[in-house]
Structures
1.
Amino acid sequence: MLYKMLSICLFISVCSIANAQDSFNIKGSVLDANTLKPIEGANITGTNLFAISTSTGEFFIKNIKRQTSSITVSHIGYASEIVTITTNKDIKVLLKESSTVLNEVAVTGKSNIKKAKETPMVTHTVTKEFLDKNRENSLMQTLSKIPGVSTINIGSGQSKPVIRGLGFNRVAVVQNGIKHEAQQWGNDHGLEIDQQGIENIQIIKGPASLLFGSDAIAGVVHIQPNKVPLQKSFKGEVNILGESNNDLLGISAGIRARKEKWFYRTRLTYRDYADYKVPTTKINYENYVFELHNNNLRNTAGREANASVSIGYVDNTIKTETLFSNVNAKNGFFANAHGLEVRTSKIDYDSSNRDIDLPYHNVNHFKISNNTTVNTGNHILHFDLGFQNNKREEHSEPIPHGYMPKPPNTKERVFTKNTYSLNARDAFNINNKHNVVLGVNLEHQNNTIGGWGFLIPEYSRFTAGVFGYNQYKINKNWHILAGARYDYGVLKTSAYNDWFRSTVKNEDNTTSQVYLQRAKNKTLDFKNISASFGVSHIKNNTTYKVNLGKSFRMSLANELASDGVNYHMYRFEKGNLDLKPEVAYQLDLDINHTKKQFSLGISPFLNLFENYIYLNPTSNYFETLQIYEYTQSKVFRIGGEFSASTSVIKNLELAASAEYVYSRQTSGLKKDFTLPFSPPLSGLFSASYKIKDFSVFKTPAISADYRITAAQEEIVPPEQTTDGYNVLHMSFTSKLNIFKNNAPVDVRLKLNNVFNTKYYNHTSFYRLIDVPEAGRNISVSLTIPFK
Amino acid sequence: MKVKLKYLFFLSLFVIITSCSSDDNSDKDEEKPTISINYTQGFPQPCVQLVKGETYSFRAQVTDNKALASYSLDLHNNFDHHTHDDQEGICDLEPVKQAVNPFIYMENFTVPENSISYEIAVNLTIPDDIDTGDYHCAYSVTDQTGWQSRTSIDIKIID
């Protein structure tokens, strides 16, 4: 039984119908031998003939010339087979999987499940169905339903990934094999990735430096390349989204098409939203009171326009795809207290809830990437090439501060970051037992700065890593993964002097006016060895995994060389050139039991940081602003996730999950304190009920998500404790059979925060200024496919 | 192996549960310092008018549960009405104007070690050659742990 589960075979039954004439027809169906589910998109080719299996796995070829003697049946993830056909005989063929193809090329759902079971790394695969069903305003908000994944939100449209309580540069976001390089260290912006059109995401909850190098210290959000479209196909969809809370209107249209070997896909997305509403009329921050007009959190409106196009080629030995994408967004920030500085303004923020006034930012992320896979038989070579240009401009009202006179314009900070990436790896198989992968990652980036506010210096960075790992199959139930990696990096920071003079006291008690130097020319280099070792064991319906990993993160330019006023946070931030790269060890355990009507999973972890880098609020001042200084401390963390689901009762699916992280700094200036932005204990109860079809509604379902989150009493300066909360979300999904010849329209009606509950999210950026989470929201989404 | 894995798993569960409840006895400082001008000698009071050339004693009372560390005093102009104070009552502001030679005072001080209560007292002479008009006076104080409290007062400087 288990063997069947593990080895995916293709079972084809071809019935050929005899025909008295010169030509004949054949009819058949393609099924997965293990699940007996139909396989869509298998290619059936022969001399002058071609067919693709339908969603029911069937195919039909008419008028086959008598001289045709064989057809080839192929599907990605399965080895192709040549089937001899005669005019009057049924043919049955059993196909074996090709394990190397499966490990490296296949991105089909089934093989991913198998791969995920065998690899000792704790991974979570997110499917398109999950994304469509749970889509929220930003990609990470959508993913935060997964236990162990949470977000740091900045208003309604932006969020940053957090895995088991760690975020910023401790989670690597990888898109199509290329590490996404934005200004991810910053507090107040999101991912800059279009969440529409993503089909498959793998989340690694644990150290993954072995595969991804620096930054993958807490986990990875790996947005995987989309499936290659079916041969001779053309498909498209238009998605329309409307939301009541922030008057959002979003439209996204995508098409994908393929001739025989060439394919392309393209997508356009536009979203425009107004200020979002919170269930309160005033906000109390320290002793300040901000009255809110119509519950609008003023100036949090935004818009986003994204475009992408890719072109690809696929045949039996090579698959290559080149993607051009651009994400452009403009987002306003809550006007009265962007960060911690309290301001009044002449701007009439309440005249419209759709306008974006100061302060706001403008972000543009342009990306070219190429993924190429070459299958030479025994070796599978894989190349990822990437170029990214990230430009972020922050605009605020020019206001004199300290010795800085009133700046000439609104351009407070400009960051322009260019990143060039090259990854190459070779996967090969020895004796059908060892799956060996050897690889190299190279990355060069340079970051230039502009504007009147200084926070981080200009820098350039080069990193190189080599790695190798072996997944050894002891037998079909036992797998071992062991690997090591070496990284080298050089970081060059550039000098920076203020553009205005400050008054400085000399030793002889006189004063002088100087352009203060904020950053120096400096070259720093880093080396690191990371490693991972894990075992997976599959026993009947239960999978056990143990994994021990060592990961690292290169210190960032802001951590090393910050030296300036962060006006948004109203503090003075100071870097430290002596900071070592962060090194962390993590022990992961994962037990998953899945039966047809029941599944149970538990994944505890234990994590030690040798030197966690932390922006520590000191008790000292610089020009009357509190100095925050980057320091390092040892950190102990433990926690895990639990999830269970059942579909014992017909049409009703029940699921429950819980997540918890406990963090302690065990050395340094904040010994015994937790880490910033620690997510509290949280549980999610979901119920989904399938209703009977009625009128045009097919497979309609209602679902409810009830989240219970405990209070977060564990804080570190300057945070404040956050009360617990319960919040209910409901949704209705269905397919609509409106168009006869097209696939059904997907409709989704969502009601977020049903009771308009006023609650605070401890890991929201606006939590610091006492802004509650968004109030009730009704959203309607329609996805209309076309051919 | 299965038995061992289960054992490991229950062990970690046990550690999670015990670690949640074992740190109540740690001596962590979770309280911010306080700062107040709401007493007779507290200075400046909201909307007070300071005269150029005069010397004033800026006084505020600060306290902390463990140990105070530093404080700062900041006087800067509010000619552009960029913010308001956090005291009760609203002062009349003069029309918005451009700064020519505004008064800037920014000084940091330390509190004597191990104080949990301290009165800030800074003697400050308002220079003769600066712009008159609306100003802010901002106090801030930190404790040894790094918690901070701030207060801001609307004042005026007149001839």
2.
Amino acid sequence: MRKQALLKVYELAKKNHDIIFIGSDLGIGTLENFKAEMPEQFFMEGVSEAHILTMSAGMASQGRIVFINSIASFLLRRSFEQFYLDICCENKHVIILGSGGGGVYAPLGHTHTIYDDFAITHNFPNLTTFAPCDPVQMELAIEYATFNPGPYYIRFGKGNEPNITNDNTSQNFITNHGLKLQSDSSLLFITTGITAHIALEVQKLLESNSILSHIYQLNKVKPFPEKEIESLIDNYQHIVIIEEHLEFGGIGSIIKLLSYRKVLHFHLGRNLISHYGRQNDILENQGIDVQSIFKSCIHLFQKE
Amino acid sequence: MINISQKSKQIRLKSLDVFSYANRGHLPSAFSIVEILVTLYYQFMNNNPLSVTENTHDPIILSKGHGCISLYVILADLGFITDHDLRSFCCKDGILGGHPTSFKIPGVEVSTGSLGHGLSFATGMAITFKQKKNDRKVAVILGDGECNEGSVWEAALSIHKHQLTNLITIIDYNKLQSYSSTEEVCPLEPFKQKWQSFGFSVHEVDMINTPEQLLNTLNQDHSSPPLIICHTLKGLGSDILENNLFWHHKNKVSQSQIHELKRSIR
């Protein structure tokens, strides 16, 4: 998937000279033709991920569209603050291509794997996150990111994934959409990234046991399509979520939260809070104050 | 031609007003950079509301964002922001806070506050200016304590690699950081040689006695990326604040103390 992704960036860069590619210290020969044909658009900047991310924000402030590729764990964990502050809060057109999302580098150990990337980036303002399941979705994601300014994180799969979507597929899709399920035993898989392939295998096995199912695959993980998901899950008796991510902070924990409606949740919202003022001003502005919470609690009992 | 001493005194007095509106802020860190800011904004860089609107300006990045009070006063003086904005310093409906936010304040290129970011951001700008054959330049003001950050030295490697002579790095070497002296917390010396070894053309200016020398230094031609170590004092220009660590985080200051501070401005 990485190979196709970098090829796509190369093709786009040929058409738009504001497109810049930056690597840290990637493998020999990476994008050799890109470097030879467009040397001004190609950067290999050394093992300095934190610097590279902020530098890319500076380039983007002057009209560049910057693609950065390195191992996802270094780009997200080591450079967390640079990604958050300089790219996302500043809303710069920088696209992070994270190699080895999930356990691609499991043989190399925990320093190189990243099973919590959705959780890490979930509250990054302005950020769009993609987790393609195959090369077709990867190309869709890169094209979308190129033509819609803003910050992006794209999680790469392990490579050599067969295409399970086609060129006409929208970002998120449902397999067997037209297939009518029995209402009393309907089952929906919700998945993202490479676990779509596992869902498909399970679906086939279930089908041989006369159990029919649909699969909802998210390419775009953030912003989370919660309205779509909410209306979907109401239509199925059973929901199975599969993701290559730790339990908390991934798509599963969001969907579980959406499904559990008894909870009144007072929180600080979803967007960047950049107001000045005192701490209490911020809390009150977001409805976290005694009177607001008291009124909401009373309302619960009045309804009953 | 502007008189640096007079202008700096005016900026410091107004900074005290701004501090008093919120009764908070990093006054000594703002005072140590006044002459640097005055030289950049009024004498050397093309940076005013018109040039910023036309995007032909020379960006100035205050990487040590906590010194922002004097920056705000200059932005108001130049017409980027209003006196009303200054009066709302740190208020919930104001645009000016204890660290500058780019998407609120006209004239601020990038939000700063967390240290060690400004030099990398400027690197990206300078590379782009150079590639686009644009003769714009970018200046970054770093704190000395900020040079403890590894990302500063990552940026230094990169600036040397790309030979960014259009990026001017200025260090406010006041020799005090939050807890104590730079010498005690994390020694920087031999500071000049460190930067030289990274490939910079390093200059030193005594901002306490001869601040006008900064402009002369800036006007020199540089064959390698320029870096100017400005020898300053924390709280420079005020007999009460100078070299007084007690004031670094001081807030809740009475009006009589503000008057005393105003009288202490040279």
